[in-house]
Amino acid sequence: MSLWRKRKSAPRDLDLKSLPRHIAIIMDGNGRWAQQRGLPRTAGHSRGAENFRTVATHCKEIGIEYLTVYAFSTENWSRPPKEVETIMGLLEKYLYEAIERMERDKVKMKFFGDVSVLPKKLRELIERTELISEKYDGCQVNICLNYGGRDDIIRGAQSYAEDFAAGNINSLTDGEFSARLYSGGLPDPELIIRSGGEKRLSNFLLWQGAYSELYFTDILWPDFGKDEINAAILWYQGRNRRFGGV
Ligand code: FPP
Questions:
Q1: Which domain holds residue 200?
Q2: Which domain CATH number covers 24?
Q3: What's the gap in Å between 135 CA and the centre of ligand 1?
């Protein structure tokens, strides 16, 4: 990535030498965004998906290495079937387009969560997207689908228990456990952003977010564009990260 490209979309006061390597986002507020405009909630998800593309492109352009977004949680299945169907449809559409744009965008895409229960067409697209984008290493976008932080930790514990029972391992460090999670091998997010006004993690990256800076904003996800990402990064750059020290 040339510095010129980074400079083009980054404001002057953003320090490009101390960017977070990994940003994670809870994209909340699609439903309210639509309701405020007298539109069906699904229209908000559609705008939310478009906005995700804008934000992902911007993050790549300024030099963020990893972007992880919460697109569908293990709890989201309790939404009305029509809304679940719309979100799955939007994801399919997004992946078709992502595959078409792959050569140009050069973004590696990964999916965190139990995708085995998703509709067959979506599963196939996920597999194709991961396979085709495997070769890119500039920016990695992780989409959390049927993801839950507790489920992630339970799976990690199960995988450790199996290795332990088989006599393959007899100790467990922080790093070894992290490697068993969906995000295995990635740095933890330094910054977690939640749009839409709520101030909670809602089962998102519970292990990985242990030391993340948490940025909450009332702005609804479809309105959370480049300027808002820049503002969140600027806020992060003003934080003093002590990791339990002084
Ligand atoms: C939360 O807003 C949003 C979701 C549960 C779905 C997020 C899905 C997308 C942005 C579309 C597809 C994603 C990608 C990555 C292409 P909400 O419905 O809870 O809003 P509310 O709090 O206002 O009701």
A1: 20-148+188-237
A2: 3.40.1180.10
A3: 29
Q: What is the pLDDT of residues 212-224, one digit of tens each?
A: 999 999 999 999 9
pLDDT band at 244 (very low <50, low <70, confident <90, very high): confident
Domain assignment present for 143? yes
Report if residue 69 sits inside a domain: yes
Region 20-30 average pLDDT: 98
Q: Mapped to the 3 state alphabet, what secondary structure does 149-170 carry?
A: HHHHHHHHHHHHHHHHHCCCCC
| φ, ψ of residue 113 in degrees (nearest 5) | 125, 175
Entry pTM: 0.93
Residues with CB under 6 A from ligand 1: 27-32, 45, 48-49, 52, 69, 71, 76, 87, 90-91, 94, 143, 196
Considering its fold, how many domains does the chain have in total? Answer: 1
Look at residue 3 in the predicted model and tell me its pLDDT: 47
